[in-house]
Amino acid sequence: MTLDEQRLRDALDEFARGVPPRAGLADAVLRQASRRRTVLRLAAAGGTAVAVAAGTTFVLTDPLPAGRVDLGSVDPAAAPPAPAQTPAPDPVIDADLDALPAGAAAAVPWYSGGVIHHGAAEVPFDVEFAAIRSLSAVAGGYVVLTADAEGQDGNELWLVSSGGERTRLARGAVYSMAVSADGALLGWAEHDWSAGSLDDGPGRTLLYVADAATGEVRHRREQTGADGPVGSVRGFLGPGRVVVDSATNAPSGVYVWDLEADTVTPWTEFGFTTAVSPTGELAAVVPPNEAADRSPAVVDGVTGEVRWRAPQNATIGTGGFSPDGRYVAEVLEIGPPPAELPRTPGALTSYDYAYEIVVADAATGAPVRTIRGLQPAVVTWEPDGALLVQAAEDDRTALVRCFVDGGCELADPIRDTSDGRPYDLGSGL
Amino acid sequence: MDAQAEGEFREFVEARSLALRRTAYALTGDPHQAEDLVQAALVKLVRRWHRVDNPEAYVRRIMYHDLASRWRRRRIVREDAVAEPPDRPVTDAADAVLHRLDLTQVLLRLSPGQRAVLVLRFYEDLPEREIAEILRCSVGTVRSQTSRALARLRTLAPELAADPVPTPEEASA
Which of A152, A182, A391, B135 counts the highest number of beta carbons within 10 A? Predict the structure, then answer.
């Protein structure tokens, strides 16, 4: 059977032909090219700002929108007075890529050009893939979850020794993996869609926890029937409990797999888990997609009860919790929700969002430090408790290290991204 | 950007933007996302105008790269649950317009990489070598990606097959 290529060509032609000519595009591009950095600088200044750039008036109102947890304590104007002899560092850091000093190399593993870099170590990882979904250090090496260019069913989970020897642990619909705090255990799940449906999710899921040094499977569980979609591994709540999501867009909750009892039981009614504290004391979750309030929550690692809620425009990424579990990094998108952006037929709709990274007390949500001026693509933590941000700015990117005590520096030189991503940390927002 | 460069840039946009926007629409299937994609690429072009030898090739390359980056950076990524959709039932041959409408939906269900290679190959009619250059991969990868994308299309839209599989009723007749 051959495909009728002419039908395909005709369909594509007809599809694209619906795009009408557009006047004023060059003007819009030239305006945008001259204003993008201005927007970021204005946002970094905080407060309400009005500016006129290249004939365009735009307003940035309240970079701390309604719904935000109390950020008063991170506003310089509202900060408590510091002792006269030892002034407290400014709780707000305005980071400018071009002005940051150079610092030590990143202390978390990252991938570039067939090599896993980790401090001074370089470990070959010459495997063909489209993207890295997860990359973590484990006892004796690294674990890498790669994505296939062709779809979701060709993802591969690799164990890579520090000497570069690699073992493929799984291939298929593996969407996530998690490593225990001590790096000794590795968890993942393989979903089987052959018995499922798009609405209900995969009909069968196999859950695994293995020795992260050898790959030897320690625990295995099969979920079928109504429980078939449940099992996407999100993190360890200590050595014996694993948080698992459902591999469906309409989850029935978040569950916990008790390894010794071999039970999977409901844990919270939230929809998805975005991060789990390495200490297992807390987890960040978000409500199901259809919920009116989609603000993230931080829940108790034992009871699943809500400790505090983040604002609607906040994201807590997979690497959001600090290694000691004391802090959590939220990324706030400052600007109108996409659904509220005005749409004009035939005209460009764009908005230059600014971003804030808020380092908060993980137990209470109280802001401790706010970093402005960076567009974070990845936020994670180094083992010693420094925050590491892969920051993007137009066609540049850099690894920026920021300290909870104040100050930021470059953990890798600014690199050009016009020809693609120069490196991959394997986690995102 | 000096006045001469700005004039050259305006001429380029005037001449090529419609084609670029149509390609972006074919890639994304979303008019707003398509406009964003083109404009963002053109903004990058402006900043490199003096250093770019082939502006159109540069913009197209940026568009494809940005599309892949945006896919990866979706805020709450839940594409995981959307695995292989169930095969469509084999239907009676419908009219050509209906086929094209169906194909539009089918194209939007391909992965970004699969859609990109089909748009480059069958909409832009680019030779494999140029597709490989834009996607920064080998010609062999372009061939295999095209083959796999077409195979997926056959699964999702069996009516596109030159010799469609007969319906059970037709087979038993």
Answer: A391
Q: Which domain holds residue B24?
A: 1-81
CA A252 to chain centre: 23
Q: Which residues of B touch A429 (CB under 8 A)?
A: 73, 75
Structure token pair of residue A225: 């029937």
Tell me which amino acid residue A10 is. Answer: D
Same domain? A38 vs A78: yes
pLDDT tens-digit map of A240-271: 999 999 988 778 899 999 999 999 999 999 99
The CATH number of the domain holding residue A189 is: 2.130.10.150
Domain count, chain B: 2
Judge: A18–B25 Cβ closer than 8 Å, yes or no.
Answer: yes
Nearest-by-Cβ selection for A248 from B47, B81, B103: B81
Query: Among candidates A181, A118, A106, which has minimal Cα distance to A144?
Result: A118
User: pLDDT tens for residues B117-173?
Assistant: 888 888 888 888 888 777 766 787 788 878 888 887 777 766 665 544 444 444 444
Chain A residues with beta carbon closer than 8 angstroms to that of B160: 3-4, 7-8
CB-based burial of residue B125 (10 Å sphere; 0-12 exposed, 13-18 middle, 19+ buried)?
Answer: exposed
Sign, CA dihedral A260-A266-A268-A272, equals positive
**For chains A and B, what is the number of CB pairs under 8 angstroms?**
183
What pLDDT, on the 0 to 100 scale, is given for residue A13? 84
Mutation target vs A (from B38, B43, B44; most A CBs, 10 A cutoff): B43
Q: Which of A4, A9, A19 to mutate to test the interface with B (most CBs of B within 10 A)?
A: A19
Residue A10 lies in a domain: no
Structure tokens given for B59: 């913009």
According to DSSP, the β-strands at A387-393 and A375-381 are: antiparallel
User: A98-124 in b/e burial notation, b at 16+ Cβ within 10 A?
Assistant: eebeebeebbbbbbeeebbbbeeeebe
Distance CA B47, CA A352 (A): 17
Residues A353 and A427 in one domain: yes
Identify from B80, B95, B98 which residue to disrupt to test chain A contact, counting A C-beta atoms within 10 A and taking the largest count: B80
Query: Is A152 in Cβ contact with B162 (below 8 Å)?
Result: no
Do B14 and B25 lie in one domain? The reply is yes
Would you say A298 and A365 are in contact if contact means Cβ atoms under 8 Å apart?
yes
